[in-house]
Amino acid sequence: MKIALLGYGRMGKEIEKIAISRGHEIVIKKDVDDEIEITLADVAIDFSVPNSAFNNISNCLNNNVPVISGTTGWLENYKDAVALCKEKKGAFIYASNYSLGVNIFFELNKQLAKMMNTIEGYNISMEEIHHTLKLDAPSGTAITLAEGIIENSSKNNWELGEKTSEENIAIVAKRIPDVPGTHTVCYESEVDTIEIKHTAHSRKGFALGAVIAAEWIADKTGVFSMEDVLNIR
Ligand SMILES: NC(=O)C1=CN([C@@H]2O[C@H](COP(=O)(O)OP(=O)(O)OC[C@H]3O[C@@H](n4cnc5c(N)ncnc54)[C@H](OP(=O)(O)O)[C@@H]3O)[C@@H](O)[C@H]2O)C=CC1
Ligand SMILES: O=C(O)C1=N[C@H](C(=O)O)C[C@H](O)C1
Predict the structure, then answer these.
(1) Does the keyword Mitochondrion apply (predicted)?
(2) Other C-beta atoms lying within 10 Å of the C-beta of residue 168
(3) What's the chain's average pLDDT?
């Protein structure tokens, strides 16, 4: 496939390596807000910056190029991207985390939340740790985990920081040099602690999942998720 990389930073470069190793060709590498001929590509992969993701995605959908986005921190425009995709009969995936392991972790988190909702006495909290160059907090992955818990428990919302009200989930975001991404969900009672944790060892897992998603969506029409790609719904 001919792939457009919308964002050629840490993730764009990692995706390029995996894409080439799987027999694809990179035809566009976009790193600034300039005009590109997106129709040169069979599929586009957006890992850019929060301010440019929606424009990048819209450009693909307006030109009938299937697009997957991993950029976090732009979701106030997600509904508009979905509407545009439907209007143009295009193809679009957003995932806060493309790692195959994290997508299994998302399912485990929902199952655990369902079970924990049946017993009393546990306080829930979350922690995410990322490198110091990350622009957004909490991470998109932490937000997806919190949403998975909210769907399956009596919690109403999430909030950033140590302290929270009873009905909210507290998410602590730490920034430590060179950490690719670590997420922990913790249930604590007076008598014990249950913790589930995903630790990314590098960016390779995110990049591989993104290329798999791009291969999957190339011949499809619709708005999809990684659950569709991995068939774990
Ligand atoms: N969903 C997932 O699995 C993952 C998501 N992410 C997310 O992906 C995004 C990118 O992460 P990462 O690669 O580490 O960040 P980087 O900052 O390394 O890369 C972002 C790149 O986008 C470029 N850029 C700026 N403006 C535009 C534009 N208009 N169009 C295209 N590119 C542009 C930046 O250029 P310049 O530096 O010159 O501004 C930079 O090179 C983040 O939102 C991050 O949270 C990261 C890892 C996994
Ligand atoms: O910015 C990053 O690096 C990462 N961003 C994503 C997020 O916000 O969840 C995914 C991953 O954790 C790395």
Answers:
(1) no
(2) 17
(3) 96
Q: Ligand 2 pocket test: which of 46, 49, 68, 72 has the largest number of ligand atoms within 8 Å of its C-beta?
A: 72
Q: What are phi and psi of 163, to 5 degrees?
A: -100, 150
- Ligand 2: which atom is nearest the Cα of residue 135? 1
Question: With contact defined as beta carbons under 8 Å apart, do 139 and 175 qualify?
Answer: no
Q: Where in the sequence numbering do the catalytic residues fall?
A: 130, 134
Distance 15 CA to ligand 2 centre (A): 14
Secondary structure in 3-state letters for 51-120: HHHHHHHHHHHHCCCCEEECCCCCHHHHHHHHHHHHHHCCEEEECCCCCHHHHHHHHHHHHHHHHHCCCC
Dihedral angle computed from the Cα positions of residues 200, 224, 51 and 26, in that order, rounded to the nearest 10 degrees = 70
The ipTM assigned to this model is 0.99
Tokens 């986005």 belong to 69
Token pair belonging to 1 = 């496939």
Q: Report whether 133 contacts 124 (CB < 8 A).
A: no
Q: Set out the domains of the chain in order of their start, with CATH numbers.
A: 2-98+204-230 (3.40.50.720), 100-199 (3.30.360.10)
